[in-house]
Amino acid sequence: MAAYILRRVLLMIPTILGIMLISFTIIQFAPGGPVERIIAQLQGFDVGATSRFSGGGSEVGQGQGTQATIGAADASSKYRGAQGLDPKFVAELEKQFGFDKPAWERFLLMVKNYAMFDFGRSYFRDEKVIKLIGERLPVSISLGLWMTLISYLISIPLGIAKAVRDGGKFDAWTSNLIVVGNAVPSFLFAMLLIVLFCGGSFWQIFPLRGLVSENFSELSLPGKIGDYLWHITLPVLAMTLGAFATQTMLTKNSFLDEIRKQYVQTARMKGLTERRVLYGHVFRNAMLIVIAGFPGAFVHAFFTGSVLIETIFTIDGLGLLSFEAIVNRDYPVVFADLYIFAMLSLVVNLVSDLVYTWVDPRIDFETREV
Known about the structure:
Elements: H1 2-28, H2 34-43, H3 56-61, H4 72-78, H5 87-97, H6 103-115, H7 129-164, H8 169-183, H9 186-197, H10 221-241, H11 244-259, H12 262-269, H13 274-292, H14 294-312, H15 318-327, H16 331-359
Helix pairs in contact: 1-16, 2-5, 7-10, 7-11, 7-14, 7-16, 8-11, 9-10, 9-14, 11-13, 13-16, 14-15, 14-16, 15-16
Family: Belongs to the binding-protein-dependent transport system permease family.
Transmembrane segments: 9-30, 143-164, 176-206, 228-250, 282-303, 338-359
Keywords: Cell membrane, Membrane, Transmembrane, Transmembrane helix, Transport
């Protein structure tokens, strides 16, 4: 097992490099950029998520630094909205953001710094990126863990119950709920919960925004715990309602597939009770595919599902930070988030494989190629 873990860890290195290289290449051709954003702000243009500045992102991304001797016409052709600006000022902007270097040099420098977890400084927040991520990472992990834990606690027992009662009234009734949960996205659930329980047209029970109250530091330990749980109830509920449906059907189908196998019939013929057959023989084999889905469920909750939820409930987590960084073209934050996301995804997948061996000791990764 130690050799397998070592191979997987070593395989993470080219995987991370490949992800960063592809993302870095795509960014070079993306419209807009930090230089265009500064120019747009100076000229009073709209710099929201839908604003576009033709040609700016690709040219800046290629690292073709504007020299102080170029004419104003050249500068304006390179950056829309730069008419009337001093070319020396535009060149200084490029130097400030590091775009005066060729793309390959910037990529190699980024790889070197990221290997030492030096993500630089945010373009527009004037803070170290590692500090921004460190402040928001626990928030997103908290939401993701709660969502994954609750969805598994619901979906596994429910999936087993549906498999045992396949075709019955309970199976049909719960399937209707699962169809709704699978069809309606989590952000719509979030909006419905806000209307119902956050002082909209109905009840004022839960807070509308934030992860804790303003007086959180003044509360006692039980008060802090209660305040935290009070704030995360609706966000976690919205994420769970949108996630448990798929996991429930996966559990049900996995158990049904195992129940119909010959060894289950043999166990019944030996006189074992249904409970002993289900939890002594079927459970271990059926849970393998459920465990295999854990990395995807956690990654979805942590990286994808939390973005809109954090935005709707104004929770200052990593998802909201990533969204704002993409909109503002804050490339150090974007690439650092991507790097952290990729690292955590690979680690979670490795942990999932190790849990495989715990659930079923017959699995031996040592004898298999990575």
